Backbone:
């Protein structure tokens, strides 16, 4: 894996410590449903904090693409599940966090663009429900995070991959707004689809991602829940930076620290309509 040049926007944010060698690299987990704006926010945040942007969805998309190429289509039998898990070892998967993006190479071929089609989205959702695939990818994700820290986005980052992240964010937005954003994004890349079609596919993926047995999408314990329906990306990034600063200023055992925040978390998480992971104290 290659690492980013760290030449992102210079900042004097007090929360930045990427260049301070005495401190462990900063880790931020961002989870949420499809189309909530995770990629935009995670990229901007990573640039502000000068840490790598780590897109775990792209890793599941890479396995989904390999599955399509090998004719492995859902629903998967147990044997197929095992084969899917082995794809990660059988192919050279190169995940490269880089300035403003996350490039993926399979056996030397840059597939980053191919990962963004609606078919690749469906395939990623299907393979991500297979435990053998998750068992193969989660250690790679932890390894990337341990190397230089980062802003990691996905579905199980706060709950499974990085439960001890410096900050866990659950980013959501109203379903029709998420579909509208995804539609605009697809159109920007020259992919034409009706909004209703995008909404239906999004609902199917949300259902699959939050109802699977292994590492379902859920609000991780201790997460800040942000509903971005009425917010600009800049506002969301500022909100997260403020939260990061606030938490770093207030240790866990002081009044007004995490205990109070957790009560808030319960209320907000309930509003999100998604399952909430039990608090770990
Ligand atoms: O974030 P995305 O749309 O690129 O993710 C593609 C699929 O991968 C999505 O359906 C959910 C799944 N995924 C997952 O199960 N766990 C992650 N950490 C990231 C993505």
Residues:
């Amino acid at each position: 894996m290659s690492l980013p040049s760290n030449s992102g926007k210079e900042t004097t944010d007090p929360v930045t410590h990427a260049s301070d060698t005495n401190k462990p690299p900063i880790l931020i987990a961002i989870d949420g449903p499809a189309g909530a704006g995770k990629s935009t926010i995670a990229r901007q945040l990573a640039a502000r904090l000068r840490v790598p942007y780590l897109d775990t969805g792209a890793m599941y998309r890479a396995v989904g693409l390999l599955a399509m190429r090998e004719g492995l289509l859902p629903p998967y039998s147990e044997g197929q599940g095992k084969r899917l898990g082995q794809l990660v070892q059988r192919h050279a998967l190169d995940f490269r966090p880089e300035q403003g993006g996350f490039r993926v190479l399979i056996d030397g071929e840059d597939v980053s663009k191919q990962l963004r089609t609606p078919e690749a989205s469906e395939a990623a959702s299907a393979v991500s429900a297979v435990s053998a695939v998750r068992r193969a990818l989660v250690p790679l994700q932890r390894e990337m995070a341990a190397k230089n820290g980062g802003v990691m986005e996905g579905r199980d980052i706060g709950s499974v991959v990085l439960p001890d992240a410096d900050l866990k964010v659950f980013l959501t937005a109203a379903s029709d707004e998420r579909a509208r954003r995804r539609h605009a994004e697809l159109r920007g890349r020259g992919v034409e689809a009706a909004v209703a079609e995008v909404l239906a596919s999004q609902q199917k993926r949300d259902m699959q991602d939050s109802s699977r047995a292994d590492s379902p999408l859920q609000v991780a314990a201790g997460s800040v829940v942000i509903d971005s329906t009425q917010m600009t990306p800049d506002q969301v990034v500022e909100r997260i930076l403020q939260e990061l600063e606030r938490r770093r200023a207030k240790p866990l055992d002081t009044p007004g620290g995490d205990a109070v925040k957790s009560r808030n978390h319960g209320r907000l998480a309930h509003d999100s309509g998604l399952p909430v992971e039990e608090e770990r104290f």
